[in-house]
Amino acid sequence: MAAAQVIGHIHGLHRDFANIQAHSSWLQQFQQAPEAWAVVHELLTSSSEELVQYFASHTLVTKLQAGNVPNVLACRQELMKYLKHFWRGPHAVRRQLVIALTDCALLQPPTEDGAWLADSVQQLSDTIDALPSLLELLATIPEEAANRKVVVPAQRRLAFATGMLQHTGTVLEALWKASQTNEACAVAALRACAKWLHLQHASPALRAQKRAASGSGGSGPFSADLVRQGTAHEHPLLKQAAQTLSIVHTAPLELCRACADLLSEAQMLTNEATPQARALHMLVVQAVVEGSRQLLPLTQKHLEAWMPQDSELTARTAVLGRLIGELGGLFCRILIADARAAALPGEPPVQPPSGLSGPLSDLTDVALHFCALRHTDLAKCGLDFWYAVLAQYLGAAAEEEDPYDEEAAGAGGRTTAAPDWSASRDPQLETQRRSQERHILEPHIQKMVKAHWRAVRYPSEPEHEEHFEWDEFVRFREMCSINVTEACLIVTPRWIIDHIGSILEEICSRQPIAWQDIDACVFMLTGVASRAPAGQDTVIPKLIELLPHLPYHTVGFKALLLRSAASRLILFTSGYLALNPEPCKQILHFLTMQHLPAIPALPQVPDPDVNKYCEALACDAMKMVMTAARKGIVQADGGTLWREVVSAVISLVADPRFNVDCRAQLVFGIGQVLSVLDNWSELEQMLDLFVSRMEEPLAPVLAQLPPEPLGARASKATRDGKAPLELKLYIAAVSSVYNMPPVADGVNRPDHHPVLAVVEKHFLTIEKVCIHHTHYEELMEQVCLAFSYILGFAREYAPTSPVFVPMMKLMARCCEQHPQPFYMGLIRSVIGFFAAAGSEQLDLILVDLTGLFVTPVAHHLGSGASTLPPPINAAAYEMLAEALRHWNLALLAIRSAQWLTNVFDATIEVVARLVEENQAVHERTVCAMLRFVRNILLWGDPETCKGDSAPEVVDLQKQAQALVAERPLPRGVALQRIIVTLARLMAAAAPNGASKGEVVPSTAEVLRTVLTGPFEYAAGAGLPAALRALPAPLGEALSEPDLQRLLQQLKMEKGDNRR
Length: 1059
Hints:
Distance between the termini: 53 Å
Number of helices: 51
Number of strands: 0
C-alpha cells in the first residue's frame, strides 16, 4: 500500500465531492490495516502537507485507541520522535500525537505509569520549543483517563487515573513554571491545571465521600485532598487566576476564559463549608465580585437597552456569568452554615441581625444584576444561580456526573445508579430542615422574585429594539417561570401575588399604562397559579376584572403580546372562573365580543409565529373556560347565557381568518357546553344550527364535484395534499357533542338521541363529503373517529337509529374505493359496542359488516397478491378476531355465513407463507390470523364454556368442531392443514429468534389449544408427520422417540408460550 495512494484518497476526500463516501470508506479500511504503521511513518516524516500529516497522526490515535499496537515501548519512543518533529506545529497534528502518546501509555502495565510521566515531562521540558507539547500532554492525560473510546479494561483506566493523581503536586508545579513564560503558555497552563483538578474526582477517597450519603439521597459531603490540606487556595496558579479575573475588564479575553475554567473546577472540588473549603470558595467568590465591580458598571445601560449578541463587553461579561451560574449552591450552603454557626446551642439557625454582608452580599447583588441584563444568554447565568439556590434548599441539587462510575461498577460489581433523593430522605427530617432554612433564604428569594419581574419585561417596542430576539426571549421567560414557581416554597404564593398586586397598583396609577409591565405581571402570576389556591387572593380577581379595560394596541408586537398575556391569564385561571359565575360571565363576554374578534384583524409582524401564538393561545383560553365552566354556563341567567355564548363562538368558528386548528379548538368548546344540557331538544336544536352553519362554506366545494364519485381515480387537488379545511370543520361540528352524561334514573327516557338525529338530518351531506373525498386519508380517519365517538356515547340508541346501517354501509363503500386500516378499526369498535346487545337483527348486521370488510382482504392474500399494505391486512384480521371473540357472533358466522368458511380456508393457506416471506413486515397480520384461528378452536372446546349447557352454546361447540374437523373447505378439511401450518410457522420463525416478537407465542397458543381440546387425538397423530415433512434438515432433525417426547411436552406445557 503506497503512501501516494493514501495521499490521493486524502485529497479526494476534500476535493472530489462526487465520491466523498468512497474515499472515506477506503481511508477507514486503511486505518485498520496492519501495514498502515509503515505508511503513517512515511507520511509523518516526508510529507509537508498539513492535511496529510493530520490524517497520519489521527490514524495513530485510531489504532492505539483500538489497542492495535505491536510493541508498546517501541511505539512510545517513535511517538516521542514524531512529537519533537512537530514541536512548532501544526497545532492539530501535535494535538493528535499527544493523544496518541497518552493512549499508548494506557496500553502499558500500570507499574510503568510513574516512570512514563516523569520521562515524558523531562523530555518535553528541555527546550522552550517543547513547552506547548508539554502543556498539551498535561491537559490530555486527564481527558484520556476518562475516555471510554480507549479499549482497555475498566480496572486499567482507574489505575491510570489514580496513578496520575500521585503526581499532582509535581504537575501543578510544572504548570506554574510554564505559565510564567508568555501569555499563550499561561492560557494553556491554566486550562491544563483545570483538567488536572477535574482529575481529582477519580480519587477513591473522594468518590467514597460522595457515596457515603447516597442512601439518603444525592451526594455526601466531600472535599478533595487538595482542599482538606488547606493549601489549594494558596496555589500560585489559582491565585493568578483569581487576580486576573478581578481585572476581567482589561485582561486578555482568552486568559480570562482560561482563569474561569480553572476557578470553576476549583470550586467543584468540595461541597462542604469547612474552613479549608471556605478559603477556596471565598477566593473564587471574591474574584467574581471584584471582577463584577469593575465590569458591571459598563453594563448598567443594558438593564434597559438590549446588549449586542457578540460584542467584546458581552464576551467579557459571559466569563463572569459562567461562574455566577455555578455559585448558587455554594452560596446557599455557606449562608446556611453561617446561620447554624450563629445559632445558640439547641436553637434553629438564625439570620445574622445585621443581615448578609461582605462578599456573599455582593455576590447576590451580582446575581440579581445578571438576571436583569437585557441579553438572554447572560441573564440565564443569573437564573442558573437562583435555580441552584432553590435546588439546594429542596435537596435536589444536581451533582456532576462521575465519569468513573461506570468503571467502578465494572471493576467491583457495584451498581451506581443515582438514588431517588425525594424517596430516600426521611420526610420528617426534610420538613424540619426546610422549615429551619426557609426564613434564612426568604429575603434573598424575595429579591430574586423582584429581579425576575424586571427580567421578563418585553421592550416597549420589540420590533424596534436592536438586538432583541423574540423566540430566545420566550424561552428565557419560561426559565424565569420555573424559578418563580419553585420560589413559592420559600416566600409563599401569597407573598408573590401581593407583591405583583402592589406593582399593578403603581402601574395603573401611571398614564399611559405600560403594556410590557402589565404583561410581566400577568406572566409572573401565571407562574404562581399552579401553587396558589384558587380564589383566595384579591389581586388575580382584580386583574381579571381589569382585562377588558386594558389599552390594547392595534399594531406591532405589543398588540399581539398584550393580547397573549390576557389569554394566558384566562387560561391559567379557568378553574377560578368555573367557580365564580360573575367574573366568568365578564370574561366570556370579553372573549367572544372583544378579544377573539380583534385578533385576526391584527397586522402581521416580522415573525409570523407571534401572530399564530397569539391566536392559538386565545382560542385555547376560550376552549378551557367553556370546558371548565360548562355546567355554570348552562345554568347562568336562567339558562339563557349558554345560547349567547355558543352562538357567538359558532360565529368565530365560521370566521375563515382563524387558523383551522384554532377553529377546531373552539368546536371542542362548543361541544363541551352542549354536552351538559339537560334538555335534549335544545341540544338537538343548537347542534343542528351549528352543523347547518358549518355546512354553508361547503357549497362551493360540493358544487365542483362530479355527478359520480371518481373512486380510485380521484387525485388530491390541494397544495398540501390535505382535505379542504371546510370539510374537516364540518365533520368536527357533527361530532362535537359526544361525552353526554347518561340519563338519570327515574327520568323519562327520550325516544331518540339528539346527536344521531342531527347526523340523520345531515346524512346526505355527510355521505357526499365522504364518498367524493375518500382519497384524503386524514379526513376519512377523522370521519371514522367521529362515527366511533357518536356511536359509542349513543350506544343505547344507535342500533334502532335509521342512520346506523347507512353509516356502516357508507364506510364500507369508502373503504372499497381507498382501503385504509382505520375503517376496520371503526368496525372493530362497533363490534365491541354492540356485540353484547342481545339483538338477533343487530348480530346479523355485525356479522355481515365483518364479512364485508374482511373478505376482500382474505381473497387478496389467498390469491397470492400483495396489493394491500400490511397495516390493512392486520386491521382486517384484528377486526375478525374481535368479532369471533363473542359467542353470539361466532355462532351466527360459523353456522350461516359462507364468507367465514372461505376466509378460514384462505387464512390457513396463507399464514405460514407470510412468515416465510417476511416475518417483520407481516408479524401483526400473522398474530391476528392466529387469534382468529384460535378463537374458532376454543369455541369447539367444551372447556371454554364449562358449566354452561345453553342450547346456543352447545350448538356453537358442534358447529365449530364441524368447521375444523368435518366441513369440506375449498382447499380441504381444516384440521390437518392447521397442524401442517403450525409446523411451518415454527420452522419459519426460528431463524428470527424465538424470543423476539409475538409470532412464536401466538403459534404456541394455537398449538396448545389444538393439542388439549377435542382435536387432541387427530392433532397428536398429525403433528409428527407434519414435522417430518418439513424441508431438510429440519424434517430429519428428530428421531421417532424424540418426536413422541416433544409431543408429550407440548401437551403438558401450560405456562411458557415460548417453549
